[in-house]
Each structure stands twice: as structure tokens, then as C-alpha cells.
Design goal:
Helix 4 crosses helix 5, helix 7 runs antiparallel to helix 19 and helix 9 runs parallel beside helix 12. The strands form 3 sheets. A 7-stranded parallel β-sheet has the order 3-2-1-4-5-6-7, with helices on both faces. The relative contact order is 0.09. The N terminus is likely disordered. The longest helix has about 35 residues. Helices cover about 50% and strands about 10% of the residues. The chain folds into 4 domains: about 40 residues; about 210 residues, 3-Layer(aba) Sandwich (Rossmann fold), CATH 3.40.50; about 230 residues, Glycogen Phosphorylase B (Rossmann fold); about 90 residues, no CATH class. The protein is α/β, with parallel strands linked by helices.
Length: about 675
Amino acid sequence: MVTPGCCGAAKGHVPFGKLLLLGVVTVCACFIGGALAGRSAVKSRGDGDIVLVGPPASPLHPLLSLAGELDRRGQKVTVLSMKGGLKKAERYGVAHLYEEIGDYGVDELSDKIEKTLNNPGVSFTASFRELAPMLAKMSAALSDGFASYIQRRLGAGRGVPSLAVVAMMSNGVMRKCDQHGIPFIISHPTVAIAPVFSALPYVPVIFTGVPLTGKTFIQRTFNAALHTVFGLVLPLVGYPVEFLDPSAFSGRPRLIHSFPGLDYPRHASPLDMYTGPMVTRGQADPSKIDEKDRAWIAEGGGRTLVYVSMGSVMELDVQTASSFIQGYARLSVGPQGCEGLAEGTVALKETEKGPRFFWALSGRQQKRLGLSTAESPDEGAISLSESDIQCAKNLADRGDLRIVGWGATPSMLALPETALFLTHCGGNGVHEAVFARTPMVGVPFAGDQQEVCARAERAGVMRYVYRGDLTTDTLEKTLRSVLTGSENIGKPGGGVVSEPYLGFVEAVDRLERLSRLYGGVSTAADIVETFLETGNEGARLLAPPTEKIGVNRLEMLWCWVSAFCVDVILALIVCAFAFGCCLGKGKCSRRRGVKVQKAISGTTRSGRRYLNLALPANAEEAEQQMSGRPPDPAALQVQIDALQAQLQQRDADLAATQQAQQQLTQQLA
């Protein structure tokens, strides 16, 4: 025999009340244990020292500028990165602050990744899928190197750093900072890059090509669906790539090295702190340009200069490089281009020459493409055609083209002769161009580059051509759409300025003036020094209700639910449904009463009322019949008596009518 337990539970089952009590106790124990663990994890801190951590790629550049400014202010600063970052530190003049913490073991892109990125028709989503494993490996290696660095400090009795500034794609380092109780700030190039971009539903998701304004209904639906995936699905199932996971960013100050106007304007969290371009006047000093390069620029006599740099990570494929060289030739010497140079039919006067091109192309790529004058391409390597190589040589001999292994981009863009920047739309390069007030033409390759191009074009400072559509004709057309094909076009002081080109110059000038509102490197240093003093408590004061330090996936889900007011919407739907049910039930009851009353009595066409004896005489009898109970004999007798009375009355009325009719007939006779 089974004995019922509490709340209807059978014997042998745990009652619901006890389960609820057990759950509450477990949750409280987890919170108390986490607090004690966090308290015990806090190590002794260093004497106000700051570490800046990032991979040896473009995210490291803002950190190097920031390190120089903090060092000038007398702060104790250490820059931590992996093999390859030292050269960048030397160019920024902060090599004495640099410490190498390992090597992620990938000196060059794998063959598969290189093949994918060198395919002009590859989508940005596909390129991201190929790059993601390499980025994950790099992030893991950086995290391991940072953990070893902390252990060395602790072993030497130095304690942990007082503050860390961690570049994006370094979520593993952020987790290590949490474990050791180190307050940290995130260094983020633009809002275009995840996970900051997913904060608001009207901001387009990267890689989709959806505009900020003027979306169609389908685009809005698609964008909302993607935000739902990022905000609702991925927090539950996990993120495919660690640096997409926004939980490490939650509740932390974020230095965003951009500014509204170039970036998409949006409602930002107080923890999203724009700094503007991380470039200093010293970095844009022309004296940083190599002496031989300065001499070549001077030989042009003030002719318009186009600076070309596609970055150091992406490899140019043969088709893209060929389009570049032939496009250079068409703009420099005229429509005949490379063919005219080869046939010797080009004989232009100095004043008729078009722009000159200064091309920063790594030595490795020069060798691979066959453009290096010092080294021959490797045996079996796929290089440019002989005609393209000869065309580049002819342009160089005429003084229209110079190819170098590296160029000081801020200094080159700041030259009065530089009228245009041909770029791959890297976040650093675009902001350096805005700082130097130089219009741009973009050829995005992979990652966030197309998103950065779209933002710059929206601001009116760029035209860009998708790499899959890149040909000699499209490149020439796009370059001319900015330069307008006028002779000797350049900046003020560098030549004659055309009316359409002035529109780009004015647009980039407005953008540069807006960027000053955010202070640049100086403001970034001020923010770092502020959180050096206030730590995590300062971040907590600035965190909105949807953000807090140590957020987990369920809390992230609740943040998404709160941001979209999903709980409020569901509550309104439930209330409306319940109200509708109650209202419908009331209407049905009223209709039922009316039908019963109509069934009990009625009227004839003459207006005389009658009693329908086939139906119940009142509501009580109707309810009795509907319930299936047998009728009361007394009630039936009453109905019979009433019927007999009606029949008698009808007979009396009929007899009276007949008598009156007979009397009337006699009178007439």
C-alpha cells in the first residue's frame, strides 16, 4: 500500500518542498563558495604597474601607442606579446617596454588558409571560418604565455600587476586576469568587431552587408534573427570561437579606438569609451620616412601621390596584383597603360603625367610575385606574368612607381603630396587616414575589413570595390571616382584640386575634427590611469543593469531577454489571452440565458403571447431538463391544468364570437 506524502508525493519520492529548499541551499552555497574563492584568488599586487597584452597583429598597434604615452607620464608599463611583436614595438619607439611571452607557432598562414584568402570570390564568412582556427590557436598560446609570466612574477615576489589592458581576441588572458584578481580593460579597434557590435538590435551584424538605415523588411527580419542567435541561442549552446563570447567583456571598461561618425552611431553603454584614432603627431612626422623614400618623393616635384598598403597579413594573389599594376599604369601614363609603355608609344610631358604610386609590399610578397629586384621567385612559385613584371619595372624607371618592403603609414599619409590612400580597410589604417585627412579607396579582403569599408564610405571619405569584382577597369574607375581624372590632382599645396575631390577632402576634414572630441591617445591614457586607481569598483559603478562582472551564460540570456523586453511582451500576451477567455466566457453565459428565455415564451404575429408547452416554462425547468433528471409530476399537472384552462377559454371565446355573428345576421335580415 502506498502512503501519500507531502504535497501529494508518493512514499519513496522526495517532496517538491524539500527539493525547492535543497535548491535554495545549493545556490547560496555556490555564491558563498564563489565569493570565498574569489577572495582567496586575489594575490598581492605590484606597485602600480600596468601590463598591456595583445597578439602580434593589428590589435597590438593601439597598445603600443598607449604604452608610449603612459611611459611619458611616468607609469610603470610592460607590453606583452609573442614573437613578431618586437619589430612593431621598435617602430613605435617602445622596444624598451616590450617583453616576449612565447610563440604561437604559426609564422605564415597555412596553405589552406592562404588559398582561401587568395581566392577573390571567397565570401567574408568563409574567410572567417578559415581564420578562426588560427585565431583560436593564437589566443590560447597568448593565454599560456601570460599565465607563465604571472607565475614568474609571483615566484620573484613581485605580485600580480595592478591593471591589465588586454586586446581583443585575447579572451583567455581575460580569464586568467579574473582568476588572479587583476582588474583589466579591453582594447577594441571598432564596434564593427564582435562581440561589442551585438549590443543593440538595430546595429547590422557583421558579414551581412545590411545597412544601418534604410533596411528593407527582409533585411530587418534577417538582422533581428541573427541578433536572436547571438543573444539567445549562443549563450545557451556556447560560442564556436572563444573571442566571440561577450561574457569576458561584460562589466569591463572597453576602450574603443574609433568614434561615432566613422563608426555607426549607437546608444552605447557607459563602459564603451571611445578614444578616437590612436595616432600621435609624432608618429605622423615626415622625418620617420626612410631617407631614400623621401628623396624619391622629392623627385616628383609636388606631383600627386597615391599611397598603397594592403597590410602585412593578407597575401595578394596574382590576379589582384596584376590589376593593381595595370591600374597604376593607366592612371600614370594614360589609357594605353602597360601596352603603351611596352611599345614605347607613351611620351607625355611632365605636366601631363598622372599620379605617382608608392606601394608598401612586404619583401616576402615581392619575392613571391616576382617583383623583387634582389631575389628571384622560388622554383615553381606562381608569380606575375612577364608583361606585368616588365610594366612595373617600366613604371619604376619613369619614376611613377616605387615598391618598398614597409612604409611609415601615418607619416606617408600626412605628406601634402599624398592625395589618396589605397587600402585593405584595416581598422588602424583607416583611422590613420582620417587623422591625416586623406581620402581613401578600399579593397577589403577578409574579416571585418568590408564592414570598416562600408562605414568609411557612409561617412563620405571612401569608395570601395569588393575584391570579387576587382579588375583593372573597376580599380581604375573607382580611383578616378575619387580623383576625378583631373590633371595633377592633389591636396592644397600639392597641386590643382578638382571640385569633386574637394568634396572628399571636406568630408574627411569634418570627420577628423569630430575625432578630436574623443581625445585620442591622451584620453585613452587618462582612462587607464583612472581605472588604475578605482579598479573593478569603478567599473561596477558604470555598469548598466544588463552588465556585471562574472556574468554566466544564463545571466547573458537574461540580459538579452531584458534588452528586448521579452518577459514584458510574454506577460502582456498571457494577460491578453486570459482576458479574452474571461470575456468570451461571459458572453457565452449571457447568450445562453437569452436563448432559454426565448425558448420558454414567445408571441404570435398578432402580438398575442403564448406559452410553449413543448419547452420548459422557466429557467429552473430548463436546467432540470438539461441535467437529465425526471420531471416533477406536480409540475406536469400544473402545465396540464394551464392547458385545459386555455382550451376552455378558447371555446368560450369561440362560442361568444358565433353568437355575435348570428345576432348581426338577424339584424341585417
